[in-house]
Amino acid sequence: MDHQDTFHIFPYGLQAFDLDCSETTVRVYFHGLEDVDDYLYRKYNGTSWTSYPITKSSLNDIPYVEFTLVDG
User: Fold this and answer.
1) What one-character DSSP code corresponds to residue 20?
2) 7-65: per-residue pLDDT in tens?
């Protein structure tokens, strides 16, 4: 990836994936992450970065982030 996000670090690395649909909701779980207050999920859309809060599930207390991806 040739884009820079110089104001953030990525302690869990970067993810990339392909989806075979025009729109879907993605939920990423962070097993083992206890304190979510200092973390954001950052998504690159091809021109800029977007931040999403990481929240804890009320069902099992596992932190997650959820967002919708749309083709194009």
Assistant:
1) S
2) 788 877 788 877 888 999 988 888 887 778 778 888 887 788 888 888 887 778 888 98
Tokens at 67, concatenated = 């967002």
> 62 is written with which tokens?
């596992």
- CA angle centred on 34, ends 42 and 60, rounded to 5°: 95
Domain locations in the chain as residue ranges = 23-70
What length is written for the chain? 72
Cα 54 from Cα 56, distance rounded (Å): 7
pLDDT for the residue numbered 1: 47
